Amino acid sequence: IQALQKAYDELCQKEGVTALPYFLIKYHDNSVVVSLLKKWDAFFQDQGGKVTVGVYDPCNLSHYPGWPLRNFLILAAHKWGSILQSVEVLCFRDRTMQGVRDITHSIVFEIKLPERALGPDCPKAVGWEKNQKGGMGPRMVNLSECMDPKRLAESSVDLNLKLMCWRLVPTLDLENIVSAKCLLLGAGTLGCSVARTLMGWGVRKITFVDNAKISYSNPVRQPLYEFEDCLSGGKPKALAAADRLQKIFPGVSAEGYNMSIPMPGHPVNFSEVTMAQARKDVAKLEELIEAHDVVFLLMDTRESRWLPAVIAASKRKLVINAALGFDTFVVMRHGLKKPKHQEAGGVCFNNASGSSDLLGSSLFSNIPGYKLGCYFCNDVVAPGDSTRDRTLDQQCTVSRPGLAMIAGALAVELMVSVLQHPEGGYAVASSSDDRMNEPPTSLGLVPHQIRGFLSRFDNVLPVSLAFDKCTACSTKV
Question: Keywords of this protein's UniProt record, alphabetized (predicted)?
Fold first, then answer.
């Protein structure tokens, strides 16, 4: 039995296949020789009397062969019936159970070939069904959906989301969420929290932008990194985060770009090289924002958010901004400007009628999305270098450890609520006064800002108007 199994495996390996449906067998004193069915004449040239043929048998019955044997028997009767009276058949049953391979339950029997003349043409094989093209052929079954671990992971992730639709929120538009292409500017504490929550919602396209490397203090607060990522100077955050997302869920398309974002108050005109690099970074940033649907601003400093806010406003992209203090945070969506051909019928920020319209909107708190302010609309000074003349401990974000996870989760949930609203980014902003009113979406309110105070475990939902002279989102800029 072992010699037969070894000879069969060697022939399969030689032919580059995993199994042979039919094969020829010759027994010697201490060995077994097998060959292909097409080599019948040469293989049995010196063989007198008994002829043994192996058939790869899918049947599990202990006393009966499987149906594939029928095709071989009619072929044997047609080609060799005149010279053979009988043929010995080995129903080769190759099974693996609990990691142990076994062929001992194979069966052997002798079949007498029929004594009748067949026509000159070889009879057609039986067992074929019509395929998708209507022709007779083998039926193929794609088992990748239930066998491939990556496909299983995808279906399991999708099932968790679909359960929300089936049981709790029938009107939830999952496709609108899953298909959203998200750009995360910043792969630190906020970026890691946002990325994990996006994957929880089934978002498949996530791109990171960051210029920092992983330090020893990062892994405890930033869940996409490990201690090994800090060694040898640290891996680039954006690349390591994208790689980790692929390992967590292979179905996600994650990319990372190790690049800097030019900032007001941080000169780049030291040399031609730095100027050229800054131009290249701006061009790449503009390209990335153009290619994505939602832009998350998750950086450390205020000024680093300015250029992405300007570009996103000009390209009318949904911007979700999250920023941290020690025990406070703000999560907000930027106002989404109307297309140019609609601006004439909208609000004009530069005349008196526009001012009264804005005042009315402010009083009634029904501010539409195109009138909402951005992160810089309430500034009294232009953005500049916020790290100048500060000690090292003041240059990094010092916040309570749980704050980033709260803000990151709220940032993603705000995006989801905006995408579920029929008007998307143009949705009227919900305020704290609307908490007792009928929610505008199946998921609840769609606020403009969420300002949280961890010391009081409290959130408020303020709404602010766009400033016509804002340094980031105004029409002139």
Answer: Coiled coil
